[in-house]
Amino acid sequence: MLKGKKIILGITGSIAAYKACYIIRGLIKQGAEVQVVITPAGKEFITPLTLSALTSKPVISEFFAQRDGTWNSHVDLGLWADAMLIAPATASTIGKMANGIADNMLITTYLSAKAPVFIAPAMDLDMYAHPSTQKNLDILRSYGNRIIEPATGELASHLVGKGRMEEPENIIRVLDEFFSASAELQGRKIMITAGPTYEKIDPVRFIGNYSSGKMGFALAEECARRGAEVTLITGPVQLKTQHSRIHRIDVESAQEMYEAAQTCFPTSDVGILCAAVADFRPETVAGKKIKREKEEELTLHLQATQDIAASLGKIKEDNQLLVGFALETNNEQQNAEGKLERKNFDFIVLNSLNDAGAGFRHDTNKISIIDRKGREDYPLKPKQEVAQDIINHLVAVLTH
């Protein structure tokens, strides 16, 4: 799947820079076109002449390669590439990428890149384990970058631990699998709901919940990356979509989300109901702000909202799939299985507020996928990786 792909290979100042030669050869052998961008420190470990000979392209390192007014455009490079791979990526470069410190050609190219970015860290074990490095890697994951975890082994310091850059053949395999997956959902139409809903009490107050929308947005990006046309129906969140194949519909209330889902689902192949929709709303909404000075007590009479999941489960056709979510605080398995049957889901994603790092507002999640064949548990992961697990399961169901 790498044939014809345009890959930017970023090389930084690490002893592992010599492995870049093997990465280049492997990528070109599979038909990819490689453009090297190297930091000044990287040139201390491997020469541009070697890299240019392997790629048949001039190596880019500086903004201004000549004194004649010509310059290297990081913007053009960012538009040219199908993927950007930084291997090896030092702690310094990872920190600059995480914080937008654009002081060299590689970082400005990264900031301009429209394509997916893969990062293969390489450093000593204590540098890799340091909280600042781990925080920067978490930041990069939250931006949608893919981290190719380093291996455990003997390092340049002769210490043994985690920090050794992954081997070239494995790095190439990660890229190949990424592009292989990019067509898995080609031609599929997928509707996803995300975020909270707000149910008005008066013009300035509402009933809501803590949902950030991060899980639903990660699912939308993953589906779009794999070729699907995605309709994302989202409640009020501060997130932005990235992929051009995502059509976003912003709503506020459960009723608005219900109406949008009823319109979109009949023409969709798959519905993924990730939103945290309010179960109840005030019976009446005050036309003016309710003043505390005039009320000793405030009693709200609530009525049930439309059940989006149940309504879609009733109209689901045999050629459609419906995926639900269950966020539970107790009797997790029993409640999730009951919801699976009542709502006519094909499978349900369970997470529990009893698991540290899972649920609302976190960048991580810990899930179980339950269907009529059983249950599969997954460890705590960044939500981008959780989205990959969920869509892998979806692809398997669609395939079989």
Kindly describe this structure:
The chain has 400 residues and is α/β, with parallel strands linked by helices. Helix content is 33%, strand content 24%. The protein is elongated, with a radius of gyration of 24 Å. The model has no long low-confidence stretch (mean pLDDT 92).
Shape: elongated
Strand order of the largest sheet: 12-11-8-13-16-17-19-20
Question: Which stretches of 5+ consecutive residues score pLDDT under 50?
Answer: none
Number of helices: 13
**How many E strands?**
21
Distance, first to last CA: 23 Å
The averaged pLDDT comes out at: 92
Main beta-sheet strand count, sense and barrel state: 8 strands, mixed
**What structural class do you assign from the helix and strand content?**
alpha/beta
Q: What proportion of the residues is helical, as a percent range?
A: 25-40%
Strand content: 15-25%
Rg calculated over all Cα atoms: 24 Å
List keywords for this structure.
single chain, 400 residues, alpha/beta, eight-stranded mixed β-sheet, five-stranded parallel β-sheet, 13 helices, 21 strands, 24% strand, elongated
